[in-house]
Predict the structure.
Amino acid sequence: MVWLVYCLGIITALYVSFYLGKKYFDVDKETIIDLAFWLIIIGIIGARIYDVFLQLPYYLEHPFQALQIWKGGLAIHGAIIAGLITIYIFSKKRKIYFFKLTSLIVPGLVLGQAIGRFGNYFNQELFGLPTNLPWGIPINFINRPLEYINEIYFHPTFLYESLGSLLIFIVLFFIYNFTFKRAKFSNYFFVWSTSLYMILYSILRFSLEYLRIDQTPDFLEMRWPQVISLIIIFISILVISTYTHVKKKSE
């Protein structure tokens, strides 16, 4: 069931990219399929490597479990980093502007994330703190952390992230339609829209980490995904500022 959810997310992301590629970006379906092929493979590898890194002591003791991706353990930040590297290499080989491809991909990506997060529900992983709220989800005894072993209902952080990702998709889709009605997309729009996704998703992830109780390294009294989210926000703002400065200077 988990991989069925993941496949549904991937198919949905592809459909959105096909639609945007034809209507707005003038990128043919074959190019998107070629890119998606590598993004899926490298993205899964990157997501797994990143997750193994976050729980390195455990996997050093259980090395063979590092290959058991069907049991969960795919970190989205690892997939994003691996995906960006893949798109960069692909853009150089196909001679397509890097940010044009990222801008094409991110709406489908975030919608795919919204769907794929339900895989965490079926795996009973990445849930949040115990809660008495009506929408709290029951977690099996074997999947509860020891400190919460007597609790039954927990925050469905996967659902919160799914709804947040859906909202980001709606915002991006509205912006794409609104912008295209006024003028053709420019390189500035490609940079800005990609950075907007990075910022909005990072804010969402940073916020939800306060509820999550899965094990992850700490740094400066923050959970590691929060540190990475702040770094991504900083880099995204820096990219927008730098591009804007260069653009104004050239005018």
